[in-house]
Amino acid sequence: MRIPSSHHNRRRDDGTAMTSMIDVVFLLLIFFVCASVGQVHENLLPTKLSGGSVTAAEVAATERPLGEAWVRLIGPGDGTSGIRVEVEGRTFAGPERYRELAQFLGSLAAAAPDLPVILDIDPEVPLGEALAAYDAARVADFDAIHFAIDITKPDRRSGSAARR
Amino acid sequence: MKVPARIREQGISLNLTPLIDIVFLLVIFFLVASHVARTESTEPVDLPVATRGENQAMSSPDRLVVTVTADHLLHVAGRVVTLDAIRSVLDATREDAMGSFEVRIRGDRLVPFHVVEPLMIACAEAGVTRVGYAVLPH
Q: Is the ipTM reported for this complex over the cut 0.90?
């Protein structure tokens, strides 16, 4: 007569525990797969603000100091249909304007990498265009990239130029 | 020969403790996951494209995600908020670890810059120096 041993019982219990674990693992796997469906991978374009310096020194538009590269984004209007980029007397307006801007800024950065770049963006310029100009300045490997604020706007609480 | 009747005496026993442990673990996990998904609710926006975007895994976990939709509305955690509400949140965070706090702006690429500009000013006024824009890789 065969006597049941405890060894066989132990093997049967181990198999039962493994089945539960596989169930849970598959449940988690299905959850993560369902949660990740439709998710678009987003990157982050970081900016370094100068905290609390919103009330920094006011800079007159007609007296731009030397040693700064002002990049101006001009929105559609005044007879033009697209976005124009003006920097150091040059204008980029074609479909490849940001690639050309990056090349031009790259030549500036090669000569003076510490030169601060200030983005002067018209209010009606779309955010995508503004970030494209910011991205072009980052591609050119400038260290300091700032945004200019129009102090004449009524909703400005500080009333002066800001460096970001 | 005497056959030990030990197994038959025990009968079928079901240990519910691991089952309850796992069920509670799953409940907590789904609760936390849904909470995170709700606080980082991502309204559909057409994000700008950039070549120098960084991986989001490098960013701070202590952050405020502000979504600016194409209709010029500000969204935080799935709710439409005003700029003053965001200012109050930033001011409340000022006492906390402001150095590691980060504001992430998910703006539609067609939103005019004057919609986003006050948000950046509010961050600067509140002392938040880490601001990032969500972009799509080029």
A: no
